[in-house]
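Protocol step 4 of 6.
Sequence for Protein kinase C-like phorbol ester/diacylglycerol-binding domain (Arabidopsis suecica) entered exactly as in the expression construct, tag removed. Do not edit the line below.
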Amino acid sequence: MSFILYWWMKTEMRYLESLSSSRLPLSLVTICCVIMSYALCIGATIKKLIQKTIAVLAEPKRSAHTIIFVSPVMKGKWSCGVCRKEVDRDYGAYTCNVCSDYAVHTRCALRRDIWDGIELEGVPEEDKDIEAFERISDGIILHFSHGCHLKFETSGVYDENKFCQACTLSINEENCYICVECNFILHERCAYAPRKKVHPLHPHPLIQKAIDENPVFVCGVCLRISNGFIYQCANQDCNYILDVVCASASEPFDYQGHQHPLFLALDPNEKPICHICKSTEVQNVFNCIEVQCDFIICFKCATLPYLVRYKHDEHYLTFCRGDEASGSDWCELCEGKLAIGGKEGFYKCNDCCTTLHINCLLGLEPYSKPCETFPFNDGELRYQRNNSATRPICKDCNSRCQYPTFVVHTEDMVSYFICTFFNHP
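Step 5 output, structure tokens:
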């Protein structure tokens, strides 16, 4: 009997230690170790103590509401909102009072990369959504980012010279809102994007802003340069920012290049390899949770436009994996070969057999709008479209700039051209 009690207590202790990354209080350990003869009674007391301790309102990344520990969970089939594995209702879980279908394993909810460690017992939830725009009349809105009215337009024409101010991508036959007084444009989806949102990769709410000073920034997930709108952490002590494209990527993620929905459900101890770029230096990835499907894609590849127009092709080009390239494929722009089984994807038109490198088609900084000027040191930088008859010569590589955009650096009344101001290949 004593052996059974000892084994049971060891199991209980392992269970308790798994609930938190820190050690249990000494008093709790003492209770568990000393009063062995009352193991069953103590076990019940400990579980009540655990519930009292962790049944506090917490705000993990994947829930827009505070959640509380419940044991047992209501009847039904539950899957964890973090790891997507089955939840055993008898062991309890964190659940949401607002979302009836949301539950999280205790172990997952208390992961350091999920929870910021702040208990919210008795703390009221913050205000709900912040409206991004005011509806003036049918088809007319006043967006927070612009002082003039925006008019809804149904676009059926591709215009490579028109860019969304929020996501910086071109207007590809998409509905949009256009300023009635200037050339300010927003995609319909970007205009409707929430002003405040909870993102699964950050524990605090994010607020959308249209930045005016120092408009160039680095996205905290894909690490790309952008000069569009940002989603910035609402916590003043946190400098976390995302571009609009990465901020819009949520679970389940519907990636057009894969047949199953994708989730941020990979075990944090695993070292992922992106199936597109083959990179092992990625931290944030989407993965498939279907049985016998190990598809993984990093944020940088997942947020690239899947369909893109090229000025010399009447069809859309589709994003393809590097291992889909053949020995006869070459880039129409730079006339270089596509690396067979290479470490990056490429774009291809199946109708015209046109293929292009990502950088050649989108540029080295695909999320930087052209014709945007911003101060730099004692001068200024300006992104310019590379569509003139003569391509400029880059000051850094001494070659003609082959990418869709280049940078004009002006200082002391002198201007010179560079392919990119950041990460020149």
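Step 6, annotate. The CA atoms of residues 204 and 233 lie 6 Å apart.
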